[in-house]
């Protein structure tokens, strides 16, 4: 009986030591992965990396982690110098993505830990209205003789719509206040597109294609980390919420 008690105590102690060693190891791995990810992606701050599943050490032996969660507070995504629409000029070279969180599953890594790739990944992020406004018209555009207009504001229009505010000058007189229109937002490939559901009333008869030079615009985003891609978008309180997804996503290397 005494021997059994001693064996039980030893087992508990060893189990406790294993848990401690496991947690120390996973903490070290998370810090190392975060530092490498920051360097590889040129991030301004160190991302959060959380390795899920227990025990960690047995996953390491198997050469694959069940799940890894990555959080990046601010990410400057490339836009490939995309244009925002007919006559709109060049879009910003970068666009700020806020609170990018990616859940990666089936993360296999090389023997020397120099690279890690996830079989699949899903995640969420936000593009603020202030950032998205940069993709709209920064300068007034002639939409008819004596009529100029430009987008001056974006906000949540409710029910998944974006409220687009258009400021217009007609025959030298600026309208008393911006005219608003509800717009739909969608993903098409690697591009976020905003299209007005109806045209704003600027007080004069205008051709639809001319007005849409102002109200409709797009922002290409193809520089997300690890090769993840846009999936869905929806207007929200502070900006456009986006879902991302990917396969064979590089976490490190």
TrEMBL record:
Pfam family for this entry, one: LmeA
The organism's superkingdom is given as: Bacteria
Q: What is this protein called?
A: DUF2993 domain-containing protein
Q: Which organism is it from?
A: Streptomyces apricus
